[in-house]
Amino acid sequence: EAQVTQNPRYLITVTGKKLTVTCSQNMNHEYMSWYRQDPGLGLRQIYYSMNVEVTDKGDVPEGYKVSRKEKRNFPLILESPSPNQTSLYFCASSLSPSNQPQHFGDGTRLSIL
Amino acid sequence: GEDVEQSLFLSVREGDSSVINCTYTDSSSTYLYWYKQEPGAGLQLLTYIFSNMDMKQDQRLTVLLNKKDKHLSLRIADTQTGDSAIYFCADQSQAGTALIFGKGTTLSVSS
């Protein structure tokens, strides 16, 4: 089954403790992206990757890192999480973001205390 | 800047039609999208329309696109309680590297 898989689905942690949210897709998609969803603000893009070893900032990249060492994986890294990063995070992938739909994972709810 | 606007709430009775409206600012998109988010779930691609089309029908769903007015709508015929969810309209960014989402319309269906 074609899917985008995120882990973990839920995480409660404390300020400053490094964490990684994994994202994997099995559709051989070139493009992958991370969004965060906040009440009243909708979804905003954090980082995206057009291909392996190619990553770029989205609208809200501060406090986040990403890597794209393999085509299927696009982890989101919070080196020193802070409470303002408490949010619902979505990973997405697409063959081509400009003319193909983006497929989303089920989301990861992060709470930073 | 690029923006997508939607009304925040819509309440309908089971069996009625629902119409969710959206306006967008960027007219260079190849596609416009509707996503559905059920409580506690991820974003499900519901349907999308190619920018040179005026209408797309898919079973109970009808998408209308008015490029002149930059207006997109989603009509759900015979709305069911299972249709209760948040519906997001999304446009492609000018660079084509991101989706620009509206804030979502919460559809509430009562029996």
How would you sum up this structure, described in words?
The complex is a heterodimer of chains A (113) and B (111). Chain A is mainly β and 113 residues long. Chain A has no helices and eleven strands. Chain A is 0% helix and 50% strand. In chain A, the strands form two sheets. In chain A, strands 2, 4, 5, 6, 9, 10 and 11 form a seven-stranded mixed β-sheet that branches. In chain A, strands 1-3-8-7 form a four-stranded antiparallel β-sheet, with no helix packed on it. The model of chain A has no long low-confidence stretch (mean pLDDT 95). Chain B is an all-beta fold. Helix content of chain B is 0%, strand content 57%. Chain B contains no helices and eleven strands. In chain B, the strands form two sheets. In chain B, strands 2, 4, 5, 9, 10 and 11 form a six-stranded mixed β-sheet that branches. A five-stranded antiparallel β-sheet of chain B has the order 1-3-8-7-6, with no helix packed on it. Chain B is globular, with a radius of gyration of 13 Å. The mean pLDDT of chain B is 93. Classes of the chains: A mainly beta (113), B mainly beta (111).
